Amino acid sequence: MNEQQPRLLVLGAGTAGTMVANHVRRRLPHWQVTVVAPTDVHDYQPGYLFIPFGMNSPEQIRRSAAAQLHDGVTVVTGEVDLVDADGQAVQLVDGTRLDYDRLVIATGTTPRPDQTPGMEGPHWHREVGEFYTREGAIALRDQLATFEGGRLVMHTCELPIKCPVAPLEFTFLADDWLRQHGLRDRTELVFVTPLDGAFTKPVAARELGHALEERGIVVETDFMVESVDGERRVLTSYDEREVPFDLLVTVPVNMGADFVGRSGLGDELNYVTVDKHTLQFAPRPGAAPHPEIFAVGDAANLPTSKAGSVAHFSVEVLVGNLVDLDRGRPMSHSFDGHANCFVESGHGKALLLDFNYETEPLTGTFPLAGVGPLQLLKESRLNHLSKLAFRHVYWNALLPGRPLGLPSAMSMAGKHPE
Amino acid sequence: MPTTTINGQQVEVNDEGFLVDPSVWNEELGAELARLIGITMTDAHWAPIRFLREDYAVMGETPTLRRVQTQTAIPVRDLFGLFPGKPAKKMAYVAGLPKPKGCV
Question: Complex ipTM, two decimals?
Answer without folding.
Answer: 0.86
